[in-house]
Amino acid sequence: MSTAAPPTSSLPVLTAKDFSSDQEIRWCPRCGDYSILAQVKKVLPTLGIPREKFVFVSGIGCSSRFPYYMNTYGFHSIHGRAPAVASGVKLARPDLQVWVITGDGDALSIGGNHLYHAIRRNLDVKIILFNNQIYGLTKGQYSPTSPLGQKTKSTPLGSVDYPVSSICFALGCEATFVARSVDVDIKHLTMVLDRAAHHKGTAFVEVYQDCNVFNHDAFLYASDKDMKPDNLIYLEHGKPLLFGKDRKKGIRLSGTQPEVVELGKGIQEDDLIFHDEKTQDPSLAFLLSRLRHPQFPEPVGIFRAVERPTYDEAVYGQIDYAVTKQGEGDLDALFNSGDTWEVE
């Protein structure tokens, strides 16, 4: 099912430029945010949705400047609360396509509770989490996704916190769409964002994003053209988990544990794990989310894409049912009904 309306002849033909605001973009030179912004602007004109039907909601952080740079409606909300604001927008105006723009610190620290509830409810919004494994706006403190032992301004001897996996988090919340891409992988990122835009329900997308000032090359293994073939698995529905420059390496199960193998010498593609993004059981997707560099190549692409009734549809279904059974409400009668007290 799709939230995008089919293009009609009455709608003007939009381009990426139509979605660019007149505001100066204030990110550091060569920041990965530029690429994510560019790919979003590339996808939106293809959806056949009028520009005034988009809303971008952000929290606090470098990524959260995003709404200023989009020529759409938007909210620059408060730290970690973008999913809550977006929930209100979607429930008040279910005809709008609502995007949440957030970062690893904004979403997974102070905003973890709000993110959890938006995902578990299957609210029909698109959540893009920029993961640079650092607090960039506040100048380089470690974040919930920073690796164990990372030295930062707030952890000069190395972080002793175990990092959060945002993909594991989303799958644990039973997200109906979960995906990952890399900021500079233009073609792949565009595909993932397009899939998210067409998903009905919560679409959660993690983007590995380079902070070239405070955490440069944290994802070099996933972005360098010579390194990424051996370090990334591009997930394709119904296809085996293959990787490597010559695609001769793969992932199979040894009992319940994944292991890296090389094709040949008795090992064939049929022995490998085959990806299934459409199964309702998230077990396979969760197993894939646990493949982490450097022990394993990391999966990118669509981990899970299933259908389930959305929260906003359920709320409006209840409203319609109540009106049918009881008629239109009377606010004055409600205020004066039930127990009342007289203060003398």
User: How is the biggest beta sheet arranged?
Assistant: 8 strands, mixed
**Structural class assignment:** alpha/beta
* Cα end-to-end separation: 59 Å
Average pLDDT score: 94
Total count of helical runs of at least 4 residues: 11
Number of domains: 2
Helicity, in percent?
25-40%
Instruction: Kindly estimate the percentage of residues that lie in beta strands according to DSSP.
Output: 15-25%
Q: So, CATH architecture of the largest domain?
A: 3-Layer(aba) Sandwich
Strand tally is 11
Query: Order of strands in the sheet with the most strands?
Result: 2-1-3-4-6-5-11-7
- Contiguous low-pLDDT stretches (5 residues minimum) are none
> What is the N-to-C succession of helices and strands?
HEEHEHHEHEHEHHEEEEHEHH
CATH class of the largest domain: Alpha Beta
Overall description:
The chain has 11 helices and 11 strands. Helices cover 28% and strands 17% of the residues. The longest helix has 16 residues, at 311-326. Helix 2 packs parallel to helix 4 (112-121) and helix 3 packs across helix 4. The chain is globular, with a radius of gyration of 22 Å. It has helices spanning 33-43, 82-92, 104-110, 112-121, 166-172, 186-198, 220-223, 228-231, 283-289, 311-326, 331-335; strands at 54-58, 73-76, 97-103, 125-131, 177-182, 203-208, 232-234, 242-243, 249-254, 257-262, 298-305.
